[in-house]
Design goal:
With 75 residues, the chain is mostly beta strands. It is 0% helix and 35% strand. It has no helices and four strands. Strands 1, 2, 3 and 4 form a four-stranded mixed β-sheet that branches. It is elongated and about 45 Å long.
């Protein structure tokens, strides 16, 4: 069947040292930030759909470790 909305969410983690201007990606030490599609909460965009839409959501873990992912506020 046809998909009306197709979303992809990538989880990434970043190391942030005290006083640093930018985070350090792809380093397997002391992760402090988790982003979805390179955005931090509260700037993460909502997945807006219409009632009756057929929706596909794909999750990708592009970080070194594992972290549980779940959706908030959906019915």
């Amino acid at each position: 069947p046809k998909i009306d909305r197709d979303f992809e969410i990538s989880l990434h983690e970043w190391r942030l040292t005290a006083g640093a201007a930018t985070p350090i990606p792809f380093e397997m030490l002391d992760f402090k930030l988790f982003t979805f599609n390179s955005a931090l909460y509260p700037t993460i965009e909502s997945l807006v759909v219409k009632t009756g839409d057929r929706v596909r959501i794909r999750f990708g873990n592009v970080m070194m470790g594992t972290h549980p992912i779940h959706l908030h506020g959906h019915e």
